[in-house]
Design a protein that fits this description.
It is a single chain. With 116 residues, this protein is mainly α. Helices cover 86% and strands 0% of the residues. The chain is built from one helix and no strands. The longest helix has 100 residues.
């Protein structure tokens, strides 16, 4: 063993411990950096998804006015159809009563000869 080794042994012990701590700190920094990068990538994907949803919503907003106009037109046409068919419903009801009044009654069939 060298005389200098004996003299520098305590210094090496202190510096060696500090070196290990620096290594641990570097691993912690690398871990934190990885987590930050993963989080940034997640935020980027969420932003892209939100932008895609915005495009879809904008297209839906563009479709609402024509759809509203079509519903208004359909409502108007159904109201006209209802006005045209209302008198026919009364006539149909009267014809049904008339048929019922003069309709043929079902005759009971004569008893089957083979069952007697």
């Amino acid at each position: 063993m060298n005389l200098l080794d004996v003299a520098f042994a305590p210094l090496r012990a202190v510096l060696g411990g500090a070196g290990r701590e620096v290594g641990t700190d570097l691993r912690d920094i690398e871990h934190i950096q990885t987590r930050v990068l993963d989080t940034a990538e997640s935020i980027k994907r969420a932003t892209e998804t939100i932008e895609a949803h915005v495009v879809v919503i904008e297209s839906l907003v563009g479709a609402i006015p024509p759809l509203t106009q079509a519903v208004v037109e359909l409502t108007r046409q159904l109201a006209e159809l209802n006005q045209v068919l209302a008198p026919m419903a009364g006539v149909e009801r009267d014809v049904s009563r008339f048929e019922h009044l003069f309709g043929r009654r079902r005759q009971q069939s004569p008893p089957d000869a083979s069952s007697a």
